[in-house]
Amino acid sequence: MITFLGVYKYYDSVPVLQSVSFKIEKGELIFITGPSGAGKTTLLKLIFGSEKPDEGEIKVGDFELSRIRQSEIPHLRRIVTFVFQDFKLRQDLTVYENVALPLIVMGQKERDIKQKVYDTLKNVSLRHKADTLVRTLSGGEQQRVAIARAVITNPRVILADEPTGNLDPDTSKDVMNLFKSVNALGCTVVIATHNPELFKNTSYRVLHLKEGKIIQ
Amino acid sequence: MNNYLGYAIKNLWTNKWSTLMAILSIAVCFFIITLIAIGLYNLNIFTKKLSNKAAMVIYLKNGLSQTEIAQFTESLQQKNVFSKIKFISKEEALKEMKDIIEPSLIELIGFNPLSDTVEAFIKDEKLNTLEEIKKELKNHKYVEDIYYPTNIINILKMLKITLWNLGIVILSLLGLSIFFIIYATVKNHYWKKEEEIEILKLLGATPSYIRYPFLTEGGLLGIAGSLIAALSIFFLYFILYSKEMIDYLPAISQLILPTEVFYLLPSAGMLLGIISSLIALGKIRYQ
Ligand SMILES: Nc1ncnc2c1ncn2[C@@H]1O[C@H](COP(=O)(O)OP(=O)(O)OP(=O)(O)O)[C@@H](O)[C@H]1O
Ligand SMILES: [Mg+2]
Questions:
Q1: CATH 3.10.129.10: does it fit domain B55-148?
Q2: CA B251 to centroid of chain Cα atoms
Q3: In contact, B88 and B118? CB cutoff 8 Å
Q4: Model-level pTM?
Q5: Of A185, B86, B186, B196, which has the fewest CB atoms closer than 10 Å, so is most exposed?
Q6: Which residue has the higher pLDDT, B62 or B17?
Q7: Percentage, residues of chain B above pLDDT 70
Q8: Ligand located closest to A161 CA
Q9: What mean pLDDT do residues A85-114 have?
Q10: What tens digit of pLDDT does each residue of B133-150 get?
Q11: Nearest CB to A74: which of B196, B206, B287?
């Protein structure tokens, strides 16, 4: 599903990723870990088309990201969604409106949207908060809204940046279970985290990044 | 489509003061544009009428036969610059003269001092061709003399060209002003929504999805401004054409208001609005 081949990324001629090569299979759930500043977020951004590699090849599905045109990026983002560390939710809209947004952008009919949004909100246990303004929600609740918005379009890949960043252990477990359940439906999930608790005692693959290089 | 329109109207309403200012400024520009355009249109009609009335008067030599005269008028006809060629024999000319001058005075002379003339009415032709023709005719063996009001026509043409050039410069400047008003307004509304738009881009919104509401906004600004201008022109026309006005200044009734204005203006407004906002948005870039 995702292939990196000899990828280099520089910021102001400082290397952030160096000679990164790996392969993520379709339907896999994988963790990317490493200390702060290792390049985890940068790696996710490269998969999302937010950044372009300076060297090397990146393939996501049928998209060649080293050569992708601006006009193709919206199409890439129909199959790859991102759960941002700072959520990037519309604070002035309700939970319902935020989760419906990707479907509206895709031009789906209002009736279909309604059903899907309520189903998805039920899955993240936020059905009862549908009409609440996002700005009044707690961090954990906003995290779940962000996840709901990322999964509602049935993407083939979900990228999550530090999805348990400032959640208590119980809520973290809930969030992880959400990712596991979408993964069980065949969606590829890539989670960047510096919290080893998330993958301790699991069989999921882990990519370790350090100073922009993959170790092990 | 409905969605874009609703979204655009909502956005215009959110920024109602800047929207109102923009629409009024656009209306003023379109109003002046239309006045100038109508002025130029009437100027064209007026000068055409006038130059159709201008005739080259050709005095023929004495003693030409009927066939020679016919031959001559035929040759004029073939030049294809005259709309009408009228032969006036000296007898006719004398008769006309007697209507103006006391006949007994003319009797006094004892003979007919006038010559046969041909009046050639000019089509709207270039002045230098007419000059050439005038020169050529002057040397013609049948022609005694020729009279043509070069100066008046010259001044008239110069005046017309100057007014047209001036008009076009002002029209372009006003068109440019409308462009900048819409450009600035739409860009400003776009910037206010930048955060929203960034989120839309992250959710896979296409450039056209992002652009449409703003293009609609620009189009609506253009239409609203031009409609206000068109209505104002309509009212102005009614006031000018009122009985009191025409009694006071009869020349006003000669003014023509082309009704095309009422559909040309809103179409131009919409088009200009859409183009200006398209340029204001520029290329949609994804990060
Ligand atoms: N837009 C940018 N411009 C310049 N430097 C950047 C930019 N984005 C990231 N960097 C640098 O690249 C390096 C890697 O950043 P990145 O955000 O990928 O790290 P990270 O592994 O996600 O760290 P954290 O765990 O703190 O989120 C850092 O040194 C950072 O300063
Ligand atoms: Mg990071």
A1: no
A2: 18
A3: yes
A4: 0.81
A5: A185
A6: B17
A7: 97
A8: 2
A9: 94
A10: 888 888 888 888 888 777
A11: B206
